[in-house]
Design the sequence.
């Protein structure tokens, strides 16, 4: 019988990318969204897992609005910390393999520095603190195999992301500001999905992985690259500083993760972001 994969949070941008690409041989995928299955509800989750009997769970569910997380702390912690704990406990008791998604922003630094998997986390906002707690809950509660994928600055066809926000502003054809003092590793959802498929197919060693491009860019440079690739007027984008953005969550200047290189699978996340973005544009 083919292994059965249960994807949680399947209507988010990463979940939808898995839905788009999942025609992978020898796996049976089941996609559930928040309406079908809320990961904060332990008994509901347990009942669903008992019914569906997956061999693997991929957790794409999360509270991802970094600014709202400062206000809706309980909801953020429920989805990003308690949810992963629920999933890990159920996976452990039923020997289900777990792939969980986490974030570069478990790290924050004032300096250009690539964090290694073994580095100590130092989250600086509510979203990131809850994501760290989610990672710990999995590490502490898992007796079965788990993989935690930390990724960064995700963009894909679905959902709200930096690329769609910049394109929305460019379409208005009026000048706007983008910060030049936050640096990161823009990563296409498709490249993360290839890493997930690599894990499913090769069942590599469990643990934490860093799936992000090695090329670092500022928000401003990235916005200009987006304008260039999508043929908009680059001069509409003007520089500003994070201190000018009032009423938003504090964000790291740098939250860089040293990308993992994995033998025997497609390491597409190592492609420079401009090249990935042109593939995204053409897709
Ligand atoms: N986006 C980024 O730039 C970025 C960067 C690094 C890491 N990540 C991580 O990557 C993963 C996927 O992110 P994404 O960009 O695909 O986010 P997304 O588009 O916001 O998708 C998250 C999905 O989870 C669902 N969800 C929220 N709470 C839930 C709950 N209690 N039970 C079940 N489903 C729930 C959401 O439903 P609703 O829409 O109904 O709330 C949404 O469909 C997350 O773990 C995120 O932390 C994202």
Sequence:
């Amino acid at each position: 019988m083919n292994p059965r994969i249960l994807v949680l949070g399947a209507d988010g941008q990463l979940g939808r990318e898995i839905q788009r690409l999942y025609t992978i041989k020898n796996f049976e995928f089941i996609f559930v969204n928040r309406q079908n299955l809320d990961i904060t509800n332990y008994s509901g989750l347990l009942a669903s897992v008992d019914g569906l009997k997956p061999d693997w769970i991929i957790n794409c569910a999360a509270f991802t609005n970094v600014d709202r997380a400062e206000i809706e702390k309980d909801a953020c912690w429920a989805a990003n910390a308690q949810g992963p704990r629920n999933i890990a406990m159920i996976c452990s008791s039923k020997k289900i393999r777990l792939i969980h998604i986490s974030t570069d922003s478990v790290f924050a630094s004032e300096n250009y520095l690539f964090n290694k998997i073994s580095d100590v986390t130092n989250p600086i906002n509510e979203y990131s603190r809850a994501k760290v707690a989610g990672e710990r809950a999995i590490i502490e509660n898992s007796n079965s195999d788990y993989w935690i994928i930390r990724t960064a600055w995700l963009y894909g066809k679905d959902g709200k992301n930096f690329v769609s926000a910049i394109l929305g502003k460019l379409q208005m054809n009026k000048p706007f500001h983008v910060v030049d003092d936050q640096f990161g590793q823009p990563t296409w959802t498709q490249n993360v999905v290839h890493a997930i498929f690599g894990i499913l197919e090769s069942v590599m060693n469990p643990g934490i992985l860093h799936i992000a491009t090695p090329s670092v860019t500022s928000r401003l440079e990235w916005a200009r690259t987006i304008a260039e690739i999508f043929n908009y007027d680059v001069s509409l984008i003007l520089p500003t500083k994070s201190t000018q953005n009032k009423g938003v969550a504090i964000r790291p200047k740098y939250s860089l993760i040293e990308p993992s290189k994995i033998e025997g699978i497609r390491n597409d996340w190592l492609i420079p972001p401009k090249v990935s973005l042109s593939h995204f544009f053409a897709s």
In short: The chain has a mean pLDDT of 95. The chain has one domain: 4-161+185-214+254-271. Residues 8-9, 11-14, 34, 38-40, 60-64, 79, 83, 101, 103-104, 131, 151-154, 159, 161 surround NAP (CB under 6 Å). The longest helix spans residues 73-94.
